Amino acid sequence: MASMPVRVGVVGCGVISGAYLRILPTFEALEVVACADMQEERARARAAEFNVPKAGSVVDLLADPEVDLVLNLTTPQAHAEVGLAALEAGKHVYNEKPLAVSREDGRRMVELARAQNLLLGGAPDTFMGVGIQTVRKLLDDGAIGAPIAATAFMTNHGHESWHPDPAFYYQAGGGPMFDMGPYYLTALVALLGPVRRVTGSARISFAERTITSQPKAGTSIAVEVPTHVAGVLDFECGAVATIITSFDVWAANLPRIELYGAAGTLSVPDPNTFGGPVRIYAAEEGAWREVPLTHGYAANSRGIGVADMAYALRSGRPHRASGDLTYHVLDIMHAFHEASEQGRHVMLSSTCARPTALPLGLAEGQLDP
Ligand SMILES: NC(=O)c1ccc[n+]([C@@H]2O[C@H](COP(=O)([O-])OP(=O)(O)OC[C@H]3O[C@@H](n4cnc5c(N)ncnc54)[C@H](O)[C@@H]3O)[C@@H](O)[C@H]2O)c1
Questions:
Q1: Residues 6 or more apart in contact with residue 43 via CB below 8 angstroms
Q2: What percent of the chain has pLDDT over 90?
Q3: Which atom of ligand 1 is nearest to 81's Cα?
Q4: Is any atom of ligand 1 closer than 6 Å to the C-beta of 200?
Q5: Is the pTM of this model over 0.90?
């Protein structure tokens, strides 16, 4: 049984499914056996493109005894509905980000998975790429001493200039924090561990947005959620991080993520990618230098978190992109908005284990030595 591949069914065959279906077959621990979408022709098209044997409805996929794990790549509003249905059907589940829109739905998924003795996991898995794993090793080796603080910045001017249907970015479940925060927060938690409390301020800077991309150019969008979110996080390890996610900034010269330690600073690569560069400033050296990358998985490896779950299922070890981690990130994102509305610090009721570092020297397509 331990050597049998975990059989994966993909639900949601839109834009991002292509990236997953390209990478998943490179891992020997799993096999993609079925595709489904509420638009069944999309499932059939992806199945044909990537040689997946079965394609059709979500109901059929969930009833299929040959599917062990459901990879849920639907849009955020459907994450809970599809994820819960898959858990009810006895499948392990890996959701795209965010885990769910509401905390209640996220919690329901975590609890149901636990009650059913099933694994729950979720995106992003970029922290398993070479960039952040190299930073993790430097941090664990003491290269910058004890962590003191961190900064994380994601600024742009929204998605209405390029996305064909951008309204959802300005509705519940959207905004810069729910859209991009998961990459930054998951990276910070993977590096520094869980968060104890947060505070923040959030605002809607433009009440309306005008779409300039085709086919909806000229249509205006009423903005329902904050588009500039500034937060402060106190980690359980004692470090204090500052984060800004914004759709209201035309230009900036900010880093993506920096970690400040007692003996130096680490410049962390874009957490929406898997690669480098990684730079360090060691106080004793007195200058910045680029650090050679130490691990594998530099190219777009979206799906590595699903593969890691498959290894975990086979060996019984914990998986890294876990339900507890993705729920903790969802909780943090809600807490920033709550803190801003209520003018206070929000103590987090969730926590998670810091995912274990990847070992050195893994062969491509392997996640365990
Ligand atoms: N597009 C990207 O670059 C990108 C990158 C990273 C993460 N993501 C995440 O991936 C997810 C999907 O994004 P996308 O860009 O592929 O969206 P998409 O709209 O291109 O595809 C989503 C698919 O899900 C299907 N779907 C929606 N609700 C469903 C339901 N209830 N049952 C069955 N099928 C359903 C839709 O028919 C569609 O084919 C989102 O959570 C997004 O945050 C997207």
A1: 13, 35, 36, 37, 55, 56
A2: 92
A3: 31
A4: no
A5: yes
